[in-house]
Write a structure and sequence with these properties.
pyrimidine biosynthesis, 8-stranded parallel β-barrel, TIM Barrel, flavoprotein, binds ligand RRO
């Protein structure tokens, strides 16, 4: 058991936003697969269809996606969130986004009645014009959005950060000043792939966000730097496929780890990572999982 911003998780694995998170039933399936908590697809103020296909490519070393925030909007998602809460038996975190501070607050308040355990503010989608990274690379916007949502709700607020900035710590700092209970690092890394036969960019949106194995070292470094700089917990996400990846992320400073791309290999990933962590802790003689959090910072 581990506590993250006051929320009890049976194990430190969390379904990352965006994967299997649009229905209550699929969130519950992931929870039954062994996740310690689950996060919804990012939900916004208006229904959105997302970008045209192809919107996701498997590059082998990771996925490039430009889904384009497809979601049914909060009025149409309330019921799914309530089902997820009822059926999953784990904490359920609602990922939300908006184009403005007011929209973030509107979506948060709209979903509160369905009793999410926390909100994750998505200020970091790499490829949604007018949303996302343009907000997430502006410390003042991140601070004021975080403060406005914190003011409007009485549950923990996590802020998911983009790596597509010069200094992620300055954005994490802004989230902390705004009252965030935790930061989550990282969202996807901006990228592009081109079909050399035709010369066309492959994604319908021309560019997208890279996730999976390729981004793990980027995520580990971001988590490491945020852990050094902030007082609030850091939740790690990016390229976690195995228990070894999870331990590495925790040694960088992550209190818990989110799993996204690896879910495509099967839902057993949650229980196999959770079990692997437990065995490692026991074999190494650590008292608890918290002993490994930030351990790399002590190795100077
Ligand atoms: O829907 C997406 O295109 C998307 C989102 Br909201 C996000 O936060 N990160 C990402 O890689 N894709």
């Amino acid at each position: 058991m581990i506590k993250v911003t006051g929320i009890k998780l049976e194990n430190p694995t969390i379904l990352a936003a965006g994967i299997m998170g649009t229905t209550g039933a699929s969130l519950a399936r992931v929870a039954k697969g062994g996740a310690g908590a689950v996060i919804t697809k990012s939900i916004g103020p208006e229904p959105k269809e997302g970008h045209k296909n192809p919107s996701m490519i498997n590059l082998g070393y990771g996925f490039l996606n430009a889904m384009g925030l497809p979601n049914p909007s909060y009025p149409d998602f309330k019921n799914e969130l309530a089902i997820a809460k009822k059926e999953s038996g784990t904490p359920v975190i609602a990922s939300i986004f908006g184009g403005t501070e007011e929209e973030f607050v509107e979506v948060a308040q709209g979903l509160l009645k369905s009793k999410p355990d926390a909100f994750e503010l998505n200020v970091s989608c790499p490829h949604a014009l007018g949303y996302g990274a343009s907000v997430g690379s502006n410390p003042d916007a991140v601070e004021s959005i975080t403060a406005a949502v914190k003011d409007a709700v009485d549950i923990p607020v996590w802020v998911k950060l983009t790596p597509n900035v010069t200094d992620i710590v300055s954005i994490g700092d802004a989230a902390q000043r705004g009252g965030a209970d935790a930061v989550v690092a990282i969202n996807t890394v901006k990228g592009m792939a081109i079909d050399i036969e035709s010369g066309y960019p492959i994604l319908g949106n021309r560019f997208g966000g890279l996730s999976g194995k390729a981004v793990k070292p980027v995520a580990v470094k971001c988590v490491y730097d945020l852990y050094t700089a902030l007082e609030i917990p850091v939740i790690g996400v990016g390229g976690v496929y195995t228990w070894q990846d999870a331990i590495e992320m925790m040694m960088a400073g992550a209190t818990a780890v989110q799993i996204g791309s690896a879910v495509h290999e099967g839902l057993e990933v949650f229980s196999s990572i959770a079990t692997g962590i437990e065995i490692f802790i026991a074999e190494k003689g650590y008292k608890s999982i918290t002993d490994v959090i930030g351990l790399a910072h002590e190795r100077i």
